[in-house]
Amino acid sequence: MWFYYFRVGLTYVTIGVASAVFFFFVVKKPVLGKLWGALIVGLVGSFLGGLIDQLFSRVIAYLADVNSVNVFAALATSLLMIWLLSKASYPR
Fold first, then answer.
1. 34: left (phi over 0), alpha (psi -120 to 50) or beta
2. What are 12-25's pLDDT values in tens digits?
3. Cβ neighbours of residue 30 under 8 Å, at least 6 residues apart?
4. How far apart are CA 27 and CA 6, in angstroms?
5. 3-state secondary structure the chain
6. Does the CA dihedral 27-33-37-39 come out positive or negative?
7. Largest CB tally within 10 Å, which of 14, 31, 53, 58?
């Protein structure tokens, strides 16, 4: 049973890190805290996306499912939170 939770947590961590790396190195937007700030916000966003998935599971049930994790919800929320951090850190 513990292995199931480990896989789910590892999936969320992977999505959060991938979002941060994508946003920092590919999109190249300035973020408060640079890569570390993006990593922290990406991880929080990924887990928050998982929580949103649990609350609205019927609405987004048809989306991708990897290791019992809705990848779309975690990825979208992670990217959204990094984008919001970027906007708050360096407003135009």
1. left
2. 999 899 989 988 89
3. 86, 89, 90
4. 30
5. CHHHHHHHHHHHHHHHHHHHHHHHHHHCCCCCCHHHHHHHHHHHHHHHHHHHHHHCCCCCCCCCEECCEEHHHHHHHHHHHHHHHHHHHCCC
6. positive
7. 31
* Tens digits of residue pLDDT in 41-89: 889 989 988 888 788 776 666 666 667 777 777 888 888 888 888 888 7
Instruction: Note the pTM of the prediction, 2 decimals.
Output: 0.66
Amino acid at 39: L
Task: From 15, 7, 61, select the one nearest 39 (Cα to Cα).
Answer: 15
